[in-house]
TrEMBL record:
Gene Ontology CC: cytoplasm
Name by which UniProt lists this protein: Aromatic-L-amino-acid decarboxylase
EC number, UniProt record: 4.1.1.28
Gene from which the chain derives: DDC
Keyword Transferase belongs to the record: no
Record note on quaternary structure: Homodimer.
GO BP terms: amino acid metabolic process; carboxylic acid metabolic process; catecholamine biosynthetic process; serotonin biosynthetic process
Keyword Lyase annotated: yes
Length: 448
């Protein structure tokens, strides 16, 4: 959709809302559709090819409005999460289907998803231990619980541990910045010998610092054997798994208890939209509360998904509607092409960096992130970053890899082209020349 069409569609939507408000007294206060009405009206999978805006708007009035805001809000989310789960080729255990044990829920952020998973895991292990030993108090169990994540995991994982009141231990990553089985097993054995209770592991697919991938095929079986909740955080990288050539990066997800990624990061869905799949009973059992003012006639019918038991907030937005629009406007093939283009551009930038002997690549380039630096000290690279960001032509965010200050070039704009990447690299080269010249002059002054 170009700017001209966006203006036209935007005006049409304003008219649609205004017409709705003018005619609101003629609409029913409460819908007369029954729970489960929506799924038979929508295909079971996302379209491969793009559809027209007119067709989607027609379906909004025909399919959504009769059940707005409930049950349409709930039922469209269930179907959209199944659409997306099928695009990712997730195991059936994660899909709602007609009457599945799993299912997806849209959280606000990956941080929320990690916290929700941790709290559910904490409840699950506490109930299991108390069932075996009724004399155990919750406090006695809590003080011994231990969660684990790679030393490359996002800071939100550590925050989840703080909020959940459990200790979190960082597992040293390998030479490719990945968590491996041996390091995790060693930590588990050490903590069990000390009388602690391991219960939760976060595996990251596409770390924030360098887009590294924890080894799910190694870590998953250990978690399964030890009875640990395995949460997979693929906040950024998860969007790429809709492409068959990148799906292998998700291998091992069948061992997970919960899986999460953010369509708002790389799948063209506006913020906020964080997709989380989980085994339903483990999650809803942890958060289920039923005060009188929230009870309704269908809550025990098995016909609906009551998302208030799947998340921290009670209120929720109609976030699945924007997923429905994006999936239909682009089609699966359009979304795959978008991901592939970004990956191709990141490799183009990588090639430019490798051609300049002043620079080095610091981590394997797998998706749309390139980690690079000038050969030299951290101070030199800090000066380069400062000069680049101060010029305000492009903006880079750094990271630290094994105590080395590293620059990160992320391909993430919807409209980015090869020409933009080339211009950015030319700018980086110019800034590097200036920084290196200043360093040379500084050394000369010191020598004199």
């Amino acid at each position: 959709m170009n700017a001209s069409e966006f203006r036209r569609r935007g005006k049409e939507m304003v008219d649609y809302v205004a017409d709705y408000l003018e005619g609101i007294e003629g609409r029913q206060v409460f819908p007369d559709v029954d729970p489960g009405y929506l799924r038979p009206l929508i295909p079971t999978t996302a379209p491969q090819e793009p559809e027209t805006f007119e067709a989607i708007i027609e379906d909004v009035e025909k399919i959504i409005m009769p059940g707005a805001a409930s049950p349409a809000c709930t039922e469209l989310e269930t179907v959209m999460m199944d659409w997306l789960g099928k695009m990712l080729q997730l195991p059936e255990a994660f899909l709602a289907g007609e009457a599945g044990e799993g299912g997806g829920v849209i959280q606000g952020t990956a941080s929320e998803a990690t916290l929700v998973a941790l709290l559910a895991a904490r409840t699950k292990v506490t109930r299991r231990l108390q069932a075996a030993s009724p004399e155990l108090t919750q406090a006695a169990i809590m003080e011994k619980l231990v969660a684990y994540a790679s030393d490359q995991a996002h800071s939100s994982v550590e925050k989840a541990g703080l909020i959940g009141g459990v200790r979190l231990k960082a597992i040293p990553s390998d030479g490719k910045f990945a968590m491996r089985a041996s390091a995790l097993q060693e930590a588990l054995e050490r903590d069990k010998a000390a009388g602690l209770i391991p219960f939760f592991v976060v595996a990251t697919l596409g770390t924030t610092s360098c887009c590294s991938f924890d080894n799910l095929l190694e870590v998953g079986p250990i978690c399964h054997k030890e009875g640990l909740w395995l949460h997979v955080d693929a906040a950024y990288a998860g969007s790429a798994f809709i492409c068959p050539e990148f799906r292998h990066l998700l291998n091992g997800v069948e061992f997970a208890d919960s899986f999460n990624f953010n369509p708002h990061k790389w799948l063209l869905v506006n913020f906020d939209c964080s997709a989380m799949w989980v085994k339903r009973t483990d999650l809803t059992g942890a958060f289920r509360l039923d005060p009188v003012y929230l009870r309704h006639s269908h809550q025990d019918s098995g016909l609906i998904t009551d998302y208030r038991h799947w998340q921290l907030p009670l209120g929720r937005r109609f976030r699945s509607l924007k997923m429905w629009f994006v999936f239909r406007m682009y089609g699966v093939k359009g979304l795959q092409a978008y991901i592939r283009k970004h990956v191709q551009l990141s490799h183009a930038f990588e090639a430019l960096v490798r051609q300049d002997t002043r620079f080095e690549i610091c981590a394997e380039v797998i998706l749309g992130l390139v980690c690079f630096r000038l050969k030299g000290s951290n101070k030199l690279n800090e000066a380069l970053l400062e000069s680049i960001n101060s010029a305000k032509k492009i903006h880079l965010v750094p990271c630290s890899l094994r105590d080395r200050f590293v620059l990160r070039f992320a391909i993430c704009s919807r409209t980015v082209e090869l020409a933009h990447v080339q211009l950015a690299w030319e700018h980086i080269q110019e800034m590097a020349a200036t920084v290196l010249r200043a360093q040379g002059e500084e050394k000369a002054e010191i020598k004199n």
